[in-house]
Specification:
single chain; alpha/beta; Rossmann fold; 8 helices; globular; binds guanosine-5'-triphosphate; binds magnesium ion
Length: 233
């Protein structure tokens, strides 16, 4: 019998301060947009059907609220597209599409691709082409891009058992590399998370990964906003 290859690195390859949820949460609550003329930073969330987009949005909300919320309706595990309208409180209108030069506040400052860690290897070529196309358009607009790799628990049993193994699991790193190769996004813009999906209470370790991903997104988006404000000056 062949010896089993080691499934874990000796040390985590990315540092995570697991006990620091409160600090991270406070930092995010204190976050300020870099331009006085912009109230909110818009980010665009895209991804394959059932990749976990709605779940990620809910998970961010859960982490802040300290309880399970469900503003974005999540699909039961099926193969069909579930979310038909994204933000019912603030839907885009035909007027939005007619605007040729959006104001700073109407522009999007980060493209967030949501990909299921257990789905990346089986992703349809057509879907990959679509995601790449969106990415190219975002690059033309100098919009930075990140990948939120969801469903890490489904991709690696070690991580399912203990989320703190997310950066020692070889499987997870392999999946992140696959995402990076497939979509051309560098590893330092890829963030693995486990979304809330069956839990009835929040969990600090899940929250840390979710808030860390959000922290990176808002900082990357804020830097992009700063760049475009300075080019407006
Ligand atoms: N185990 C596990 N399941 C997850 C995770 N994230 C999402 N799910 C499940 O995956 C399924 C799809 O999640 P959704 O959030 O509805 O995905 P979506 O990208 O919004 O899908 P559409 O709206 O159809 O495009 C649901 O059954 C979720 O409960 C995760 O991190 N781990
Ligand atoms: Mg959805």
């Amino acid at each position: 019998m062949q010896p089993q290859p080691y499934k874990e690195f000796d040390k985590p390859w990315r540092k995570i301060h697991w006990g620091e949820k409160k600090n991270l949460e406070m930092k995010l609550r204190r976050f300020r947009v870099s331009s006085q003329n912009v109230r909110h930073i818009r980010i665009l969330v895209v991804g394959e059907i059932a990749g976990g987009k709605s779940s990620f949005i809910n998970s961010v909300n859960n982490a802040f609220q300290g309880r399970i919320t469900c503003n974005a309706l999540v699909a039961a595990a099926s193969g069909t597209s579930f979310t038909k309208k994204f933000n019912p409180a603030n839907p885009s209108t035909s007027k939005d599409h007619d605007r040729h030069v959006p104001s700073l506040g109407d522009q999007t400052y980060c493209l967030v691709n949501i990909i299921g860690a257990d789905k990346i290897s089986r992703m349809d070529n057509k879907v990959i082409e679509k995601i790449r196309y969106i990415r190219e358009k975002a690059t033309e607009l100098e919009m930075p891009q990140v990948i939120i790799m969801t469903r890490v628990d489904e991709a690696c049993p070690l991580v399912k058992e203990d989320l703190r193994k997310v950066y020692t699991s070889k499987k997870i790193k392999e999946k992140m590399q696959e995402c990076s190769n497939c979509l051309g996004v560098p590893m330092n813009h890829i963030f693995p998370v486990k979304n809330y999906h069956e839990e009835i209470d929040t969990d600090d370790d899940m929250d840390i990964l979710i808030l860390k991903a959000l922290d990176q997104i808002v900082n990357i988006a804020n830097d992009a906003l700063r760049r475009s404000t300075s080019s407006f000056d």
